[in-house]
Design a protein that fits this description.
By secondary structure, this protein is mostly beta strands. It has 1 helix and 15 strands. Strands 2, 5, 8, 10, 11, 13 and 14 form a 7-stranded mixed β-sheet that branches. The longest helix is centred in the first third of the chain and has 15 residues.
Length: 255
Amino acid sequence: MKNLIRIVVLFLVFTSCEKTEDDTNNDCTSNCTVLRGRFVTLNNLPVPNIRVSLKYKIGGGELGGGSTRKIVNIESDQNGNFNKDFFIKDRELGNSAGGYFDVEIDDSKIDVNKYIRTNNLIGGSSTDIGFAIYSITRRDTIIDETFYIPKKAFIKVNLNNFVSQRAGDLFEVRTLYPFGPKVGLNTFLNSEYSTGFSGYGNWIATNLNNRLNVFVAEGEKNIIRVIRRKNGIGSSQDFEITVPPNNTLELTYNF
């Protein structure tokens, strides 16, 4: 019992050493660093109400003692823009600083019926578009990022004659589409943005005749990935499709 009490006391001591500082209401007036960017969707239209936060984190290791300074907490405006000046403390500046800057993106306020979000499906799709900056050496640095949030469309996938011949046999559909930060050239999708992924295990056939409603990015090149495992032998095929606005495509496969 004494050992248990000692462990609990030590845990409380170490966790109490975790420090959190909130400077999100502070305005920078000189020697400022800038965090700015834009969220856009199809046809470069803006996406408002996406929250962007910036923190400086120092890890404490197994024994605790780390710290987090909350620096920026803003939302994209009606033009999809976000912009905030902030001040980097001396201990956070340069290659020898002990922590890193963490930029987090929260798109939970945008309409999940209209857009593909970072965490679009429970238990499946999760695409983190935040990023870490491990060193900032000058206070006059401008951090400028543009992010793509796809409009959501659906395709109907029909599967005929699905009969499991061996335990583990399956038919599954996954999708890949432009999503997230601007990268210059994504040759896989012929896009200037990164690749989003619908996740694992969201659209799996379960009986002889299935109809799966699968989401894709409207007006963009999508890759439909069909996964089969038949009689214990697995295969994967990729198909390219583009769904125009206000349209629904229907695809039919035989198992």
